[in-house]
Amino acid sequence: QVQLVESGGGLVQPGGSLRLSCAASGFTFSSYGMSWYRQAPGKEREWVATIRSTGSTSYKESVKGRFTISRDHAKHTLYLQMNSLNPQDTALYYCYFYMGRDYWGQGTQVTVSS
Q1: pLDDT tens by residue, 5-28
Q2: 59-62 own/partner pairs: CB under 8 Å, 24+ apart
Q3: What's the rounded Cα separation, in Å, for the pair 107 and 63?
Q4: Residue 30 near residue 53 (C-beta atoms within 8 A)
Q5: Angle at Cα 11 formed by Cα 7 and Cα 17, nearest 5°?
């Protein structure tokens, strides 16, 4: 069955960096676009970044130049490198893809605080 398992979250100071990973299984990873979303406390879930099967990428305006989405087809893993983090980036981060329906991971918490 399809599984998406995120990891790499944690507590980081403002200006710091984290790299999130999403291990994918149960489907042909290289054939699908993959995305990262996030949900801050009391707010709706929002899109952060997408990487298509071709490798092309798109980003939410507020993370452009700070976040980089990438994928390793051999490892069936999606990544989100996050630099210059600020408190507004605090959220639960999810990986996502669509294959007939929405698939979500369980999320990994990122907290940016001094």
Answers
A1: 999 999 999 999 999 999 999 999
A2: 62/88
A3: 19
A4: yes
A5: 75
Q: For the beta carbon of residue 51, count every other beta carbon within 10 angstroms.
A: 22
Please tell me the distance from the alpha carbon of residue 106 to that of residue 39, in angstroms, as a whole number.
Answer: 12
Residue 73, C-beta contacts closer than 8 angstroms, at least 6 positions apart: 29, 30
3-state secondary structure of 89: helix
pLDDT at 61 (0 to 100): 98
In the chain, count of helices (H) and strands (E)?
A: 0, 11
Residues 98, 74: Cα–Cα separation, whole Å: 20
Contact status, residue 104 vs residue 4, Cβ threshold 8 Å: yes
What residue type is assigned to position 60 of the chain? K
Give me 78's structure tokens.
């999606």
pLDDT by residue (tens digit) across 31-83?
Answer: 999 999 999 999 999 999 999 999 999 999 999 999 999 999 999 999 999 99
8 Å CB contact between 9 and 59? no
